[in-house]
């Protein structure tokens, strides 16, 4: 039988793509060398080339200079999210750090350069840890022009206009309250102006400019619960709809009169395009999820990052001129050459108040009854989608005979703003009730064995997994928490200072809702946990500090509950080091096999505490 490593993709990617100005090269971040480094590859096909990288840093965002001779990128150390800025020539020479000041969160604009390549736009909290400032960096003189945000707003630079006059940015308060700010750089006394105040609260995420800088494209939920594609006309100060499906538009790019966008239809991505408003036929693409998209300057093709249940994430070309689809990479692991991967069934199950919860259900081959892993996605404002999940972990578990149910409970994205906001200040409430109904649904299936039930999640999903073990009365066989919060009060107090408004809106203000946050915390109900638990944690995690995992592990070990606790000293929130990632998922696979297959729920083998 293939082992877990036989299911691991040959490489993984950060969700960022950057086409060179001439459209000949695609730049991306891949960990094929063991760390996420900066690579470039010819769009026409050919060998990729490593341009830059570090043993202890992860390349995150990438952009080309307008002349196409150099690239700028951000990188952080061991997942600490303290990003620094670098410039490097396209041939890999002349790597130079251009950051100024202390470690902080520097976020590169999507289109960060003016036409001359002299001025670079990004965001940083170097002045005040609690404030994300907009910065224009003069690469010739080193001078910084800075714009500070209003109270409660976190700025994020998006782009400089094609004429270099305008700086476009977002003002973030929560995932459902994102405004657009515009700054006239030709005015020495300019301040950022909110363009969307009159449109009310909602999501307004700007994207590609019109070539003449007359306006810009954006994604917005202004007209309905779902995110539409639109265009904002600067002169008229008006918003014009481009596409308004009853699903979310998720990525959008535009060039040379062509617009191309992807729609999240029930979790899968569907591409659409138009030229001057008339639809363009597109080649068929494999069913999957598009996480990044870059349209060529002449709009003859687009490069996408696409992931599916049957094939890991790949960089691919959608050729609009030739009506062709082709992969640029092949990351398929050995197992996929000898077995057929299992795609999920998209199902719904009933929850309270007459709601239906969408979920992905993976059924192993064979009649069963099969043990089941309840997998809970992170966020919580995220979505479980049909991808080659967890570096092949899903497919390996399925090959062992373990079924997987992955629900999109209250708080998940993809099903409208109202569904997304249900979880605001109600963590461990309506979401846990939806997970309870997920287990009840499993009891209705004749091919599952609910007495062999495990739960797993990462980040928010880790919190929810711990909540299931502590608060839902089922005979859990095992649980896995990856960087999962155990105490919502200490989590809220320890959150990055720039997240203060976001935390108060989505989780709850720790100063006014302390009692509520404690009551919903897994650590408060830790005495109810009896199932073997596997906890994984990055020591440098800035989002969920190690203290969150320390608390729950200490409480359980005091009672003699079987706990395995793996701390990764060189990781942050999730894995950036490939060796660490493979070690973790191989250990998780063995842990779940031990408690779901090698033993029964009634007679589990002891798990060594360590």
TrEMBL record:
GO terms (BP aspect): proteolysis
GO molecular-function term, one example from the UniProt record: aminopeptidase activity
Keywords: Aminopeptidase, Hydrolase, Protease
Membrane-spanning ranges: none
Source taxon at top rank: Bacteria
InterPro entries assigned: 6-blade_b-propeller_TolB-like (IPR011042), AB_hydrolase_fold (IPR029058), Peptidase_S9_cat (IPR001375)
Pfam family, one: Peptidase_S9
Keyword Hydrolase among record annotations: yes
Record has Phosphoprotein as a keyword: no
Name of this chain's protein: Dipeptidyl aminopeptidase/acylaminoacyl peptidase
The species this protein was found in: Nonomuraea rubra
